[in-house]
Amino acid sequence: MTIRDSGFIISQKKFSENLILINILSKNYGLIKGFSRIQKKKKFILFENVEFNLRLKNRDNLGFLNIETNYNLFDFNEELLSLLIKASIGELCMMFLPTNEQNVDIYNDVSKIFDYLSKNSSLGVLEKCKEYILFEVKFLENIGYGLSYSKCVVTGSTRNLKYISPKTGCAVTGDEGNPYKSKLFTLPSFFLTKKSLLHSIELNEGFRITTHFLNKAKNGMSINNKKMIFRKEILNKLNERLKL
Questions:
Q1: How far is CA 123 from the centre of its chain?
Q2: Same structural domain, 171 and 67
Q3: What does pTM read for this prediction?
Q4: 13, 44, 73: which is the final residue of a domain?
């Protein structure tokens, strides 16, 4: 059988002297992997959007990829933080997504943030980190660990939302949460509206929230042996910016 689709190359590693193993987040088939022969004249670029076909005997076996690249659509001089964000997204997909299982929402979210980073290369660290945190919030929702912060879980009110519970991921108002605020996360304002001013404290709190629930997802899926290396580098970049 042959699968034809488009997608983003999110990882590649040498498998043997003549073969590399490539993982692609595809539009219609989710995360897929396959072999490609090493060619001196043709190299594949991480995070590039490609057209491909995958030839395989059945969906349970690895097949061979034929990939069509389009370097005209790829920025080889992309800023480091943007590359780290893309690498972290690839890392999350490899960590949490099953192979051969379509997830159009995640694919579309990845496509949107990749396009955003390409079109807004001049934006600063704070703005890019905000977009990445919001991506993680959507990603958590798509893997079954979503947050609920549109209204208070206790009163149903949509006003004065101030905290998020680390146990449930649900929001509560200041009045309901103040007696327990030491045990709750503070709800960043940019979770609620993109028009809010960015504050470094809120960005750090946003990362604290998504870190907590990503780790919760890792525990729930029994994948504790894997580390989020590139994500840590994004946090380092944010902390470097905050020290300036």
A1: 19
A2: no
A3: 0.91
A4: 73
